[in-house]
Write a sequence for this structure.
C-alpha cells in the first residue's frame, strides 16, 4: 500500500472508530503481519486497548488473523487490509443503491450490517423492524415477515453473503505433528477461506421469525402489554447462532459498473440503446463471473424476448440498434457470431478501459485546458510521436505545443521515450518520442484521488476543530430548546433562548455548515472516480 | 548513461542531450529556474467544475453524515480510559466511570476470534436499560426485571413470610455493618490525631451562646 492509501485509511479509521483503532490500524497497514505483543510494544498502547481495537477491526472485516509464520505453534498474526478500509468511503453509495433497489427496508438492513460489520439474520431483522416502527406513526408497527422478505431478496441477488467460517486455531496447533511436516495443517497454512469458497454462501438459515417491531416508549403500560411477547421472543434462541451475514461488496461493484456502462451508452447514443444494453447485462448477471472480460454471448432473439414490455420496438429496429452499438468506436457491444440472429456480447473490459480513458482525458481537459487535452488524446491514440509530429497533428503552434507538452511531462501524465539510433546513445542521434501509457497514468491518477480525499477529510476536521466552541454552544442551545419545547414553554422563552446565539455567530455557523457539507459531498464524488479507476486497474490485473 | 562525460554543469547552455531534438530552438528564452518551493496555494488558471448538486447527492450526503454520527455512539468507537488526574473522590464509587481499558463494551462472538483477544465484557452494559442502542443484550435483563416485578406483585401474598425473613436477614447484616463501621470510626479517631490530647477535652465552641441570656448585668467573656 502506498503512503497516500495508508494516510487515507488512517483518517477513515479515526473518523469511524476513534484514535486508538487508527493507531493500531495504521501500524498494521504499514508493518504487515504482526502478532499481538509486537503491536502493543511498538505502538505503546496498553494491551487491553490493543485487544479491543483488534476485536473491532476483525468484526468489521478490516483485519484478518492467521497462525504465525513459524508454523502452527507461533503466536497468532494479524493482517490489516487496506482495500477493505477504503471501502468505508463508499458506504453511502451502497446504502443508497440498496434503497433504490429494495426500498427503505433494504436500505436499513444494509446500513445496520455495515455499521455492525457482520450480524446474524435474526438480529438484523429485529433491529430494522424496531427502527422502522420508530419512524412510523403511532399505533402501527412493522411486521418481521416484511423485513425477512427484504432480507431474503438481498441474499438471493447476492448483495448479502454469509461470513466465511473461521479456521480453527487450537486444533491446528495440536493436530500437526512436527515429525511429519507433510501432514496438511487444517487450513492454517493455506490462505484464509473466502466467503465465496463456502458452498452455503447464499443460503438462508431455516429460522422462522414471528413478531412485530417494538416502539421505544417512556410509559410503562405499553411495555408491560408487550412484556409477555418480549419474554417469548427472547427465551427462544432464534436458531441461527453463528451464521453471520456481511455485505458483498463485489456484487455492489458489479452493479455500479453496469450502471456506469449503461449511463455512458445513454449519453453517447440514446435511451433505447441504453435499455438494450441494460437488458443484456441483466440477462447475463448470473452467468458472468466477477472477472470476465465480456459477458456470455446472447442471441438477438433472446434479447428481443427479454426487452422490457414498455419498450416495444420491432425486430428490425432492434437489429439496427445492435449494429449501431457494435460499430460504435467505444466498443461497448461486440458481435461474436451469426447464429440465432446474431450473437452479441458486452465487452466489459473494453468498456471499463474506455471509461477510464475518458476520465483521464477529462481530467487533463479540466486542469490544463482543451488544447492540452487535444495533445493528450492524440498521444493516447497514436502512441508514440515526436515533438514535430505532435505540433503538426494537433495543429497547435510550435511554441505553445512545447509549453503544454512540458507541463504535462512535469506532471508525469506524458512520458518521454528514448530510441537510440547508434549503440552509444548519443543525444544528437536519438529519437525522443512522447508517449502516454494508460495503465500507469490511471494508477497515478488514482493515487492523486486518494490524496485528494485525505486532504478533504483533513480540511473538514480542521474546520470543525476551529469552530468547536461555536458548535458546542449551538448544540447546547438546541438541547435546551428541545427540552423546553417538550415541557411546553411559552414562545417568549423559546425566542429568548434562540437569541442566545447572536446574528454574526449564526452566520458563521451557517457558513461552517455549508463548507462541511461541500467537503463531504466532494468526498462522495471523488469516490466515484476512484471506483472507476480501481475497477479498470483491477480488470487489467487478472489478464 | 547518455552523456556522462560532457555537460556537468559547465554553464547554462550545456545539457547532456541535444536540445534541438526535444524542441528548444537556439537562443530561445527558457522560463527562469525556480529557486524556492512552489507556493502552497498557487493561483489556478482553470477553475474546477462545480459539484454535482441534486437530490441524489444531497441524500448521499445526509446518509454519510448520519452514518458518521451513528458510528460515534456505537461501542465500536474505542475511547481510551481517562486517567484520573486528581485525588480519588468518594463519589467515584457511585458515579458512572465511563469506558475502562480492560473491559469491552459489546459482546462479540468469541468463537470467531483468537483466544488471546478475549477480554471481560463490561457488566454495566447488561444492567443498564438501553436508551438509544438496540444491541441484543440490552432488552433481555430489563425485561427480566419487569417480568420479575410482575411476578413479585402476583406472588407477594404468598411470599410474605420469605420477604420478612429476608428483611430480618438484611437487618442483621446492617447491624453487623454498623458495628464494623463503629469500630472503624473509633479506630480512625484514635489514630487520626496521633496526639497526646484526649478528644473529649476539645471544645469546638458549638455550645457557646446556647445558654439563655436573661441576666444581662454580668458581662460575657
Amino acid at each position: 500500500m502506498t503512503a497516500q492509501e495508508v494516510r487515507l485509511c488512517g483518517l477513515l479509521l479515526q473518523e469511524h472508530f476513534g484514535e486508538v483503532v487508527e493507531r493500531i490500524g495504521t501500524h498494521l497497514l504499514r508493518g504487515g503481519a504482526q502478532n499481538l505483543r509486537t503491536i502493543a510494544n511498538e505502538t505503546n498502547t496498553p494491551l487491553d486497548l490493543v485487544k479491543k481495537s483488534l476485536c473491532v477491526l476483525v468484526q468489521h472485516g478490516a483485519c484478518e488473523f492467521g497462525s504465525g509464520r513459524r508454523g502452527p505453534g507461533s503466536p497468532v498474526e494479524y493482517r490489516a487490509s487496506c482495500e477493505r478500509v477504503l471501502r468505508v468511503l463508499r458506504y453511502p453509495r451502497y446504502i443508497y443503491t440498496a434503497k433504490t433497489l429494495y426500498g427503505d427496508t433494504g436500505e436499513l438492513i444494509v446500513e445496520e450490517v455495515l455499521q455492525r460489520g457482520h450480524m446474524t439474520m435474526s438480529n438484523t431483522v429485529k433491529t430494522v423492524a424496531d427502527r422502522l416502527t420508530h419512524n412510523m406513526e403511532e399505533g402501527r408497527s412493522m411486521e418481521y415477515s416484511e423485513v425477512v422478505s427484504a432480507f431474503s431478496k438481498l441474499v438471493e441477488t447476492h448483495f448479502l453473503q454469509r461470513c466465511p467460517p473461521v479456521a480453527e486455531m487450537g486444533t491446528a496447533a495440536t493436530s500437526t505433528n512436527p515429525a511429519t511436516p507433510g501432514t496438511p495443517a487444517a487450513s492454517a497454512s493455506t490462505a484464509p477461506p473466502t466467503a465465496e469458497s463456502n458452498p452455503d454462501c447464499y443460503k438462508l438459515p431455516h429460522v422462522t421469525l414471528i413478531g412485530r417491531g417494538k416502539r421505544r416508549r417512556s410509559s410503562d403500560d405499553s411495555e408491560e402489554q408487550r412484556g409477555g411477547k418480549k419474554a417469548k421472543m427472547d427465551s427462544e434462541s432464534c436458531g441461527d447462532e453463528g451464521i453471520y451475514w456481511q455485505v458483498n461488496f463485489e456484487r455492489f461493484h458489479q452493479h455500479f459498473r453496469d450502471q456506469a456502462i449503461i449511463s455512458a451508452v445513454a449519453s453517447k447514443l440514446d435511451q433505447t440503446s441504453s435499455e438494450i444494453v441494460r437488458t443484456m447485462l441483466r440477462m447475463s448477471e448470473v452467468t458472468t463471473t466477477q472477472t470476465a472480460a465480456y459477458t456470455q454471448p446472447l442471441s438477438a432473439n433472446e434479447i428481443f424476448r427479454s426487452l422490457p414490455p414498455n419498450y416495444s420496438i420491432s425486430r428490425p429496429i432492434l437489429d439496427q440498434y445492435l449494429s449501431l452499438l457494435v460499430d460504435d468506436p467505444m466498443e461497448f457491444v461486440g458481435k461474436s457470431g451469426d447464429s440465432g440472429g446474431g450473437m452479441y456480447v458486452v465487452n466489459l473490459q473494453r468498456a471499463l478501459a474506455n471509461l477510464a480513458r475518458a476520465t483521464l482525458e477529462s481530467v487533463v481537459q479540466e486542469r490544463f485546458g482543451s488544447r492540452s487535452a487535444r495533445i493528450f488524446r492524440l498521444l493516447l491514440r497514436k502512441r508514440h510521436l515526436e515533438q514535430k509530429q505532435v505540433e503538426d497533428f494537433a495543429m497547435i503552434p510550435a511554441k505553445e505545443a512545447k509549453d503544454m507538452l512540458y507541463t504535462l511531462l512535469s506532471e508525469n501524465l506524458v512520458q518521454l521515450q528514448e530510441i537510440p539510433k547508434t549503440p552509444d546513445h548519443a543525444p544528437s542521434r536519438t529519437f525522443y518520442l512522447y508517449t502516454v501509457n494508460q495503465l500507469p497514468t490511471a494508477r497515478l491518477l488514482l493515487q492523486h484521488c486518494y490524496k485528494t480525499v485525505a486532504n478533504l477529510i483533513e480540511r473538514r476536521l480542521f474546520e470543525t476543530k476551529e469552530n468547536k466552541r461555536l458548535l458546542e454552544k449551538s448544540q447546547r442551545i438546541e438541547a435546551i430548546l428541545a427540552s423546553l419545547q417538550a415541557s411546553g414553554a411559552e414562545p417568549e422563552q423559546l425566542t429568548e433562548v434562540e437569541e442566545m446565539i447572536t446574528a454574526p455567530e449564526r452566520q458563521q455557523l451557517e457558513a461552517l455548515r455549508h463548507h462541511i457539507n461541500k467537503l463531504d459531498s466532494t468526498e462522495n464524488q471523488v469516490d466515484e472516480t476512484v471506483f472507476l479507476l480501481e475497477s479498470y486497474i483491477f480488470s487489467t490485473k487478472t489478464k | 548513461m547518455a552523456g556522462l562525460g560532457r555537460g556537468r554543469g559547465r554553464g547554462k547552455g550545456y545539457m547532456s542531450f541535444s536540445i534541438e531534438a526535444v524542441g528548444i530552438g537556439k537562443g530561445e528564452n527558457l522560463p527562469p529556474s525556480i529557486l524556492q518551493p512552489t507556493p502552497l496555494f498557487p493561483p489556478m488558471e482553470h477553475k474546477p467544475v462545480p459539484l454535482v448538486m441534486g437530490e441524489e447527492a444531497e441524500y448521499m450526503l445526509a446518509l454519510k453524515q448520519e452514518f458518521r454520527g451513528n458510528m460515534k455512539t456505537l461501542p465500536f468507537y474505542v475511547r481510551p480510559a481517562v486517567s484520573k488526574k486528581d485525588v480519588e473522590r468518594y463519589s467515584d464509587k457511585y458515579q458512572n466511570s465511563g469506558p475502562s481499558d480492560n473491559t469491552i463494551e459489546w459482546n462479540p462472538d468469541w468463537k470467531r476470534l483468537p483466544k488471546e483477544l478475549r477480554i471481560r465484557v463490561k457488566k454495566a452494559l447488561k444492567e443498564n436499560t438501553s436508551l438509544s442502542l438496540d444491541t441484543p443484550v440490552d432488552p433481555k435483563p430489563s425485561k427480566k426485571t419487569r417480568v420479575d416485578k410482575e411476578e413479585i406483585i402476583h406472588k407477594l401474598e404468598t411470599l410474605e413470610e420469605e420477604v420478612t425473613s429476608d428483611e430480618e436477614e438484611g437487618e442483621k447484616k446492617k447491624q453487623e455493618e454498623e458495628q464494623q463501621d463503629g469500630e472503624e470510626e473509633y479506630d480512625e479517631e484514635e489514630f487520626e490525631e496521633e496526639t497526646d490530647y484526649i478528644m473529649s477535652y476539645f471544645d469546638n465552641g458549638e455550645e457557646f451562646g446556647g445558654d439563655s441570656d436573661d441576666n444581662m448585668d454580668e458581662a460575657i467573656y
Remarks:
- Residues 170-190, 218-236 of chain A have pLDDT under 50 and may be disordered.
